[in-house]
Amino acid sequence: MIEIRFAGFGGQGILTTGMICATAGMDLGKNVTWYPSYGSQMRGGTANCSVKFDDKAIASPFLKNVDILCAMNTPSLDMFQAELKPGAVVFVDSGVVPEDHPIREDVKVVRVPVNEIAHKAGNPRGANLVMLGAMAAHTDIFTVEEITKAVEKFFKKKGIDNPKNLDCLKLGSEC
Amino acid sequence: MAEKVLMKGNEALAEAALRAGSRFYSGYPITPQTEILEYLSTRMAEVGGFFVQAESELCGINMVFGAAAAGARAFTTSSGPGYSLKQEGISYLAANDLPAVIIDVMRIGSGLGDIFMGQGDYWQLTRGGGHGDYRTIVLAPNSVQENVEMVQKAFDLAEQYLHPVIIASDAGIGQMMEPVELPDFKEHDVNKFDWAVRGCKENENPRYCQNIYYNMWDEEYPLVKEYGDYPTYLTKKYATIEENEQRWESYQVEDAEVVLVAYGSSSRVAKDTVDTARAQGFKLGLIRPITLWPFPKKAFAEAKAAKAFCTVEVNILGQMGDDVRLATEGKFPVGFAGNFFAVPDPDDIIATAKALLK
Fold it and tell me: Do B134 and B126 form a contact (C-beta atoms < 8 A)?
C-alpha cells in the first residue's frame, strides 16, 4: 500500500496532479483510489487530494500513514506533516517553502524549485508536472517513462497537446 | 471488456445511467452529488436526452414522476437535505406504481449536517421516508464499479416491479475516483409499456395514472379487477420483492465468532478489518447488505458460529442495528462500531467486536 498526499494552493493543479498519478498507478495494473478535498475553498486557498496504490483491494480512499507528501506551499506542509510515516518522502516547492522551515527529522525531504523550472521551460502552469518528474526520480512508485505515458494519456483525453508539459516532467526528473 | 478508465463515482454513475437508456434527468445541485448534474448538463445533450436543472428538489422529483408516467427511464439525484425534500414525490411514485431511480449520495448529519462522507440516511431510505404505506427497493454500492452496475440494475428492477428504486451511495463512493469499466449503450423504448400514459388510440382502454385511493373500491379498475382489492395487491407486491430481491455479500461468515454488518464505504473497511482480525487469530466475518431494503435476512442463516453481530456505520446512532436485531430475532447482542466525519478505524472495530464477547 502506498499513500500519497498532494497539497498546495487552489488553482495550482493539485487535484489534476493526483489524477495523473492515479492514472499512472492504474496503468501499472495497481488498484488505485483518488479522493479530493471538496469543502468550501477559494482561489489561492488550500486544496489537497489523496491517492492510494495497492496490489490488493483498497479498503478506504482516506489516508492514515502517508508515504509521500507533495507540498506545494508552506501551509500544506504544516497541515500534513503529522500523518507521515517515519521514512516518508516529502517533496516541497523550494521556491515558496523557506529553507529553515521546520520539517520532521524522520522523513526524507526533496526540495524542488518547481515554479522556477516551469517558468524556465516556458510553461509556468507546469510546476505540478515538474513535481511529478521529481517524484519519479526520488521514489519507486513509477519510472519517468511510466509517468510520461500517464501525462500524455491524461492530456490527450482532454484534447490538450502541449509538448512543454513533457519538458517540465523531464526537467523535474533531473532534480 | 472495455478498457478501464479512471472516473469519479458520481460521474461514472451519470454515464452509466445514460448507457442504461435513460434520457431524462431533473435535479438540483447539492454537495456531494453535484458532479452528477455537472456531468449530465453537457453529456445528456450529446446522447439526445433531456437534462433539466430544476428550481428545487421537489420540482426535480415531480418532473421525474411525469417522465416515468410517460414510459421514460427517468432519474434524479440528491444528498441529505435535498433527498428529504424529494420524499413526497417518491411516495407519489410508489402510490402510482411508477418505475424511477433516485440516488442519494449520503452526507453526514441531520438538518444541514455537513458535506462530508456519512451514512445517516439508513432509516429514511429503508422505512419509506415519505408518507403512507410504502417502501422502496434500496441498493447500496461500495465502489465506483458498483455505482455503474447498480444504476443499470436499478432501472431494471424499477421496471420489473413498477416501483421506485433508490441507490444509497455516499460521498466516499461519489467523490472517489477508481478504475472502472463502463458497459455498452442500451436502448430504451418509451413506447414499450402498455401502462405508460402516452395517449390511447381509438378503441383502446384509457390509461390511468391517478390516485389509486380514489379507485380502490371500483371493481372495474384494472388493478382491482386483477387482484380483488388494493390491499391484496400491495401486500403481494412487497412480499414478492422481499422474497426475491434480497442481495448480499458474505465474507468469512460461516465460522465467525462475531459477524460485522456493513454496507457502502464502511463495508470496504469492514472487509479489511476481517482480514486484520483473522491474522490476529480473532474470527471475524462480514455480511454486506447490497439491498438495504429488502434487508438480506437470509444471509444470517449462514452465521452458524456467531455469538454476536456488530454494525459498522458512519453515523452516531447505529441505524442499521434495528434490522440486524430483527434478522437475528433478538437472540444475539448487536454492537455498533461507528465513526463520525470519517470511516471507522479497523482497530476500533476489532476492539468493539471483542468487547461483545465478554
Answer: no
**Do the interacting molecules here have an ipTM over 0.90?**
yes
- CA A130 to chain B, closest CA, distance in angstroms equals 22
Q: What is the pLDDT of residues A108-137, one digit of tens each?
A: 999 999 999 999 999 999 999 999 999 999
Local structure of residue B131 (DSSP, 8 states): S
Which residues does B46 contact at the CB level (< 8 Å), separation at least 6?
A: none
Q: What is the DSSP string of B135-151?
A: --EEE---SHHHHHHHH
How far is the alpha carbon of B165 from chain A, nearest alpha carbon, in Å? 27
> How many other CB atoms are there within 10 angstroms of residue A7's CB atom?
24
Interchain contact, B177 vs A31, CB within 8 Å: no
Q: For residue B200, tell me if it sits in a domain.
A: no
Q: What count of residues does chain A have?
A: 175
Mutation target vs A (from B178, B273, B348; most A CBs, 10 A cutoff): B178
Final residue belonging to a domain, choices B138, B157, B180: B180
B343 chain-A contacts, CB cut-off 8 A: 60, 62
The closest CB to that of A22, out of B6, B273, B343, belongs to: B6
pLDDT digits (tens, 9 = 90+) for B295-333: 999 999 999 999 999 999 999 999 999 999 999 999 999
Chain A contact set for B115 (CB, 8 A):
38-39
Work out the widest C-alpha separation in chain A, in whole angstroms.
Answer: 43
With an 8 Å Cβ cutoff, are B179 and A19 in contact?
no
* Shared-domain flag, residues B226 and B272: no
Grid coordinates of B354: 471483542
Residues B235 and B314 in one domain: no
Whether A22 and chain B come into contact, CB under 8 Å, resolves to yes
- Give yes or no for A31 touching B (CB within 8 A): yes
Q: In sequence order, what DSSP letters do the residues of B111-126 get, joined into one string?
A: TT-EEEE--TTHHHHH
